[in-house]
Amino acid sequence: MNDPLLSRHSRDSHAAALAAATSEVGRYLDDRATPRSAATPDELAHRTSAVDLDRPLGDLTSALEEVRAIYLDHAVGYHHPRYLAHLNCPVAIPALAAETLTASVNTAVETWDQGTSACLIEQRLIEWVADLIGFDSPTGTAPDGVFTTGGSASNLQALFTARENRLGRAGDRCSRLPRLRIVTGEHAHLSVVKAARLLGLAPDAVIALPGDGDRMDPVTLERTLASLAESGTEVAAVVAVAGTTDHGAIDPLRAIGEVCSRHDVWLHVDAAYGGGLLVSPTHRVLLDGIGAADSVTVDFHKTFFLPVAASALLLRDGAGFRHSAVHADYLNPADDPGHAGGATAVKPTGGGPAVDKSLQTTRRFDALKLWMTLRVLGADGIGRLLDASIDSALRIANCIEQDPELELVRRPQLSTVLFRPHPRVDVPPEPCSRDAAGSGPCPTGAELADRLVRPVRDALFAEGHSLVAATVVDGRPCLKLTVLDPNLTDVDVGLVLADVRAAAGRLAAGLRSTTTEVFT
Ligand SMILES: *Cc1c(COP(=O)(O)O)cnc(C)c1O
Fold first, then answer.
1. Which of 110, 167, 205, 243 could covalently link to 274 via disulfide, CB atoms 3.0 to 4.6 Å apart?
2. CA 189 to ligand 1 center in whole angstroms
3. What span, in angstroms and rounded, lies between the C-alpha atoms of 404 and 284?
């Protein structure tokens, strides 16, 4: 390329490069008959390592062709109607237009002098989300927030802020840190345990309460906090989940908020999955009580249908962000009038520079894709996409319930469907004894279903026609569909369930024939 860097002299190359990339995306969409190609991970590893990184191709067309062969032809298509595995969403088109602006202008949302208007746009959205949450009786200063790279990062910063809030009370920090606890339900996201590790808490700092079904039980929480208080154990935070990643369960936020307020404990609500309910025209009520939170995580790259990465951490008392601020003379000096409340041209509204609130320094303008999507679709428009996904999940659950070869494990609360295959099998030949380990042959009923779950998932992954996930519910394996496709039709659902039944039938027959071999 003549001039590889973007400037007014290279705008034609910029336009041509984006057009070429866009047409590759078009080809990817056209060619994608299945959510995944049938290439094995080994084949793909081979292709990737065969690329000689010391020998550049020299032009964009060749680089795109190579990327097509090693990536696009095999990328898992989250937009595909038969991709129902993990919490990945199809993405809103206005957000993709925004991504072009974000990447091309490359604003760092960091200080007023690096990106005044981007900082203002992000801040406007933070206020908008805080209003949707509707924090109860804000203490201290107004609510505030910051965009992050994801729910894991938002949770880390929330728990860091809660830790500082607790340790900032009277007493010696060092002796109290190892005894601090975080209380969660048993289905809290793994990032809570990871955050506890990073925050220097003890290895057993996270207390995961057994639930009431999939949800945290406020009575158990009340009892636990009372007994911790009695033993003089300090709790940095209670983490409630609005949409557990694995089951889509929503904790009873109002009751939990009351318990936390009685015990004067920080409540963090992890709404990484359920955050989209904030704009749902019909299901907002599922978040009843979220306003009692001290901090909230929302992932826009899940139920707001934005491309990765886009998340935010919101604090009820915005002053809590002071724990994240560190000053540097060249960037955000503590005595800068633009920081401390004076008025300068680079500080149009209250608040310090964005970098004071973030764990990152250089930070991408991810807020723009939320802004553009909101301005095009409106809050209701985004919320209706989630509502349609929730409806699809309910329709799928109904289909499964009526299917004699499938067993519904839970009714969906959000958009996750948990179920098991139950292929019809002949009664095993008599006698069908087990081996000493109890893992003997002739599985039927529940045991057969359990043994089929992972092989069914793996077989579907290998074929690539329908992608589902596998997990464990109440100690038993089960299959999982995470529905984030508002346009899912009954035909698509029928095809996915047919693929599951077919794989289960085939694998069950395989198990039965090995069984017979063992016994004859
Ligand atoms: C997805 C998820 C997270 C993690 O978010 P990332 O954006 O993947 O880092 C945290 N909590 C819950 C409840 C989630 O569903």
1. 243
2. 7
3. 34
In this prediction, residue 61 carries a pLDDT of 97
Q: How far is the CA of 243 from the centre of ligand 1 (A)?
A: 10
193 has a pLDDT exceeding 50: yes
Residue having the nearest C-alpha atom to atom 5 of ligand 1: 151
Q: Which atom of ligand 1 is nearest to the CA of 241?
A: 13
Q: How many CB atoms lie within 10 A of CB 512?
A: 20
3-state helix, strand, coil in the chain (%, to 5): 50, 15, 40
Helix (H) or strand (E) holding 472: strand 469-473
> Cis link prior to 431 (omega < 30° from 0)?
yes
Segment 228-239 mean pLDDT = 97
Averaged pLDDT for residues 389-408: 96
Q: How far, in Å, CA of 134 to CA of 18, rounded?
A: 40
Ramachandran angles phi, psi of 278, nearest 5°: -60, -30
> Model pTM?
0.94
Percent of the chain with pLDDT over 70: 91
DSSP 193-244: HHHHHHTT--TT-EEEE--BTTB--HHHHHHHHHHHHHTT--EEEEEEEBS-
- pLDDT of 430 reads 47
Could you tell me what percent of the chain has a pLDDT over 90?
A: 82
H helix or E strand, kind and range, residue 160: helix 151-167
Q: How far is CA 235 from CA 73, 210, 232, 262, 422, in A?
A: 49, 18, 10, 13, 44
